[in-house]
Write a structure and sequence with these properties.
By secondary structure, the protein is mainly beta. The chain has one helix and eleven strands. The strands form two sheets. Strands 2, 4, 5, 6, 9, 10 and 11 form a seven-stranded mixed β-sheet that branches. It has a four-stranded antiparallel β-sheet with strand order 1-3-8-7, with no helix packed on it.
Length: 123
């Protein structure tokens, strides 16, 4: 069974940091990344990373504050989030595709989603 299992969300104050994790099970993935969705807003792409190379891409809204990384041995990706702001409050989802169709990934056209983890940033 293919699964993406997230962890690491929580309630923090503005300026704090959090690290989200997403473990993958059941099959290899080519591109893995993170999205978020705040109440009343559309799902937003944040970052992706290639599994077979160091290639990454970030949304302009988080570039410089968020860092995506991976651990090939544990089949896990991470999202290090620094200097968090109240507007970062959302449910964060990890996602994966089995191919390298970046444009599709950016549009949220992914084959696999995690269950989501809540991040709340208080002012």
């Amino acid at each position: 069974q293919v699964q993406l299992v997230e962890s690491g969300g929580g309630l923090v104050q503005a300026g704090d940091s959090l690290r989200l994790s997403c473990a993958g099970f059941g099959r290899p993935f080519s591109v893995r990344g993170w999205f978020r969705q705040a109440p009343g807003r559309e799902r937003e792409f944040l970052a992706f990373i290639y599994w077979g190379s160091p290639t990454t891409q970030y949304a302009s809204s988080v570039k410089g504050r968020f860092t995506i990384s991976k651990n090939n041995r544990d089949n896990t990706i991470y999202l290090q989030m620094n200097d968090l702001k109240p507007e970062d409050t959302a449910v964060y989802y990890c996602a994966a595709r089995a191919d390298y169709k970046n444009d599709a990934f950016l549009r949220g056209q992914v084959a696999y989603w995690g269950q989501g983890t809540q991040v709340t940033v208080s002012s």
